[in-house]
Write a structure and sequence with these properties.
By secondary structure, the protein is of the alpha+beta class. The chain has helices at 17-34, 38-59, 91-95, 108-115, and strands at 10-14, 62-71, 74-83, 118-124, 128-136. Strands 1-2-3-5-4 form a five-stranded antiparallel beta sheet, with helices on one face. The two termini are 25 Å apart.
């Protein structure tokens, strides 16, 4: 970890289901370090798992980064997922809740957005996707 990112930054390469499990465990550890409530731990680890699983399912490989930092005296934790996969051509449809994927319900990204304090997706067809989700520990 560099001083710019803070002492709690962890990068996890993601290529298969074992990496999804690792991301979930590391997310849980970060939550506990940050002082999250049990429900906060569940929310954060669910989103981290979802983002890592999306990398495996849709891009094949990528990276999940977990970090915590103090913002205005409050602990904020963040998960970001980056891949160089095919991108998400129908992002508006997905976020509007009108999409059902072949692998699942198609609710992972919209559900993740609903339970986090901040949620941002940048995607470009053929160039990949970056998702950043943040929440304050509570």
């Amino acid at each position: 970890a560099t001083s710019r990112e803070g002492p709690q930054t962890q990068r996890i390469p993601v290529t298969d289901e074992n990496d999804v499990v690792k991301a979930r465990g590391c997310g849980r550890a970060l939550c506990l370090q940050a002082g999250c409530s049990p429900s906060g731990v569940v929310r954060f680890t669910t989103v981290g798992s979802e983002l890592a699983r999306n990398i495996v399912q849709y891009a094949g490989h990528g990276e999940v980064t977990l970090q915590g930092r103090s913002v205005s005296g409050r602990m904020q934790i963040e998960v970001s997922a980056v891949d160089e996969g095919p991108g998400i051509p129908n992002l508006d449809e997905i976020l509007a809740g009108r999409y059902r994927s072949r692998q699942g319900l198609g609710k992972g990204l919209t559900g993740s957005k609903q339970i986090m304090d901040e949620f941002d997706i940048q995607t470009q067809p053929g160039k990949g996707t970056k998702v950043v989700a943040r929440m304050f520990a509570r």
